[in-house]
Design brief:
- There is one protein chain.
- This protein has 479 residues and is mainly beta.
- It has two domains: 16-245, Jelly Rolls (Sandwich); 312-478, Porin.
- Helices cover 9% and strands 41% of the residues.
- It has six helices and 28 strands.
- It has a 17-stranded mixed β-sheet that branches. An eight-stranded antiparallel barrel has the order 21-22-23-24-25-26-27-28. It has a three-stranded antiparallel β-sheet with strand order 18-20-19, with helices on one face.
- It starts with a helix and ends with a strand.
């Protein structure tokens, strides 16, 4: 009898046990399933539930924190974890998994507050975000990532980066891509040492599986497709989704009612012309108006102060060999704009006057301060990180060509290594380069500022491979 009671209790518990709700389906077109059932609008999406679309299928999911997860045709994906901690937002945990096909992820409110705990996995890549809207296309061997807004950090599953991990994988084997790098994508190929940043050409995720013309777009995206007849029949889906994803608190959460259009006749009523009596001219004696008194000490004019120049802040945000971080990451994140992040170092830009790069000319910088570390993999899990120093550093920026190149000597305990980097300069003074895994070349992310005069200061963080066993990670100030 006791055994029967336990069995009945367990059966009852199983009946009422449900996985946590990760979101709700807000739009379905074509063949699509959620778990073992056909996907329908309004249905909840649970953690771990498999989502699939057929050859003509589309599915839009509103996540629990007002984000978007969009599946395009021939796609299989799931929301592995969506645990939101409203009391302590930094403890929020979110994880997506794209098994095959093309999907788009637009970060919700909770993810933006806990980007360090967001992970988007494919069969070959781990993707982290910087408060982002991005699209991924993948098969079992290759993944390609493009960015609408914000930025991503992408790594293959190498070293300590594992599919069962949480948060972004950052370091020498990762690559970052920003929305500022229009026309480029990050590609990860199985067995490759590091991802590649490539010109998208015809390989972008949007080429692999184009979005529906009514797919909600980033406000900053100037390349919005035209709406066709089919979409016009969709009764403003884009507007409806915007209301679901970002509801207006002043409006009730009920669907709009479409009213038939009624042509109202226009009635023209003639306006009578009143009779105006003749006007008799009356002479008017002008009254002198006294001039206002001017105070002997007029108040000073109040102007708007010019905004201060924005400047760069970098530092080590991770402990190394027992040494505490030199940068308060949380404090910088709260007040400044994050420009880049790698294994040990972070780069921020303070608020103030926007930097505008000149249209021509060039400027050269010398190395003023730096910090660097060399990591050596001896095999068998034996990894050693040791400090190194930089010397003979040079950085040259060509504004006309929108390019830069840099070189420096890395001095370790055993040798001196020549390092170099070359890349692009954006109109707002950012520096980007991709070493493509070449020994002796650096992945550089940096910033130009007017802190000490026009284009007088630069800051960079970098990583790269020295040889088969060693990688370098560092940061520098240039003047």
């Amino acid at each position: 009898m006791h055994k029967l009671f336990i069995t009945a209790t367990l059966a009852c518990a199983a009946q009422f046990a449900h996985a946590a709700e990760a979101g709700k389906i807000i739009f379905v077109a074509g063949a699509a399933t959620a778990g073992e059932r056909a996907a329908v609008e309004g249905a909840r999406v649970e953690e771990g539930q498999m989502l699939s679309t057929g050859a003509d299928g589309y599915m839009y999911v509103k996540t629990a924190d007002n984000g978007l997860f969009i599946l395009r045709p021939q796609t299989q994906a799931r929301i592995v974890t969506y645990q939101i901690d409203k009391q302590n937002p930094a403890n929020t945990r979110v994880k997506f998994e794209l098994l095959k096909g093309t999907a788009r992820s637009k970060s919700g409110d909770a993810v933006k507050q806990a980007r360090q705990n967001f992970r988007f996995n494919t069969p070959v890549a781990a993707i982290g975000v910087r408060g982002t809207d991005f699209t991924v296309a993948t098969d079992n061997d290759t993944s390609r990532v493009s960015v609408f807004s914000g930025g991503v950090v992408v790594s293959g599953f190498v070293g300590g980066c594992r599919p069962d991990g949480a948060g972004p994988c950052e370091g020498a084997a990762s690559r970052e891509l920003s929305a500022a790098q229009r026309g480029q994508l990050v590609q990860v190929t199985r067995g490759q040492a590091a991802p590649q940043v490539l010109e998208a050409g015809g390989q972008s995720p949007d080429q692999a599986a184009p979005p529906r013309p009514d797919e909600p777009l980033t406000r900053k995206d100037a390349d919005q497709p035209k709406v066709n007849v089919e979409v016009a029949k969709n009764l403003g889906l884009n507007t409806a989704i915007d209301k679901v994803v970002k509801p207006d608190p002043a409006e009730p959460d009920t669907p709009p009612v479409d009213l038939p259009e009624v042509e109202t006749p226009v009635v023209v009523v003639p306006t009578p012309t009143p009779e105006v009596p003749p006007v008799t001219e009356v002479p008017v004696t002008p009254v002198p108006v006294p001039e206002p008194a001017v105070p002997s000490n007029p108040p000073p004019l109040v102007g708007v102060p010019n905004p201060t120049e924005r400047f760069a802040v970098w530092g080590r945000w991770q402990p190394v060999n027992g040494a505490a971080p030199t940068l308060d990451f949380a404090a910088q994140e709260a007040t400044n704009e994050r420009i880049a992040l790698n294994g040990y170092f972070a780069l921020f830009r303070t608020p103030g006057k926007e930097y505008v790069a000149p249209n021509n000319g060039s400027v050269g910088f010398s190395l003023r301060s730096s910090e660097a570390y060399v990591t050596t993999e001896y095999g068998g899990g034996n990894i050693v990180t040791a400090p190194a120093t930089l010397s003979n550093g040079a950085l040259t920026v060509d504004f006309g060509k929108r390019s830069f190149n840099t070189s420096m000597d890395l001095i370790t305990r055993t040798d001196t290594v020549k390092l170099r980097g070359e890349g692009a300069v954006t109109s707002d003074g950012r520096l980007y380069s991709n070493a493509a895994g070449r020994n002796g070349y650096l992945n550089v992310q940096g910033l130009l500022t007017n802190e000490r005069g026009p284009s007088s200061t630069a800051a960079t963080i970098f990583d790269g491979r020295i040889d088969a066993r060693r990688t370098v990670n560092g940061a520098a100030t240039w003047r």
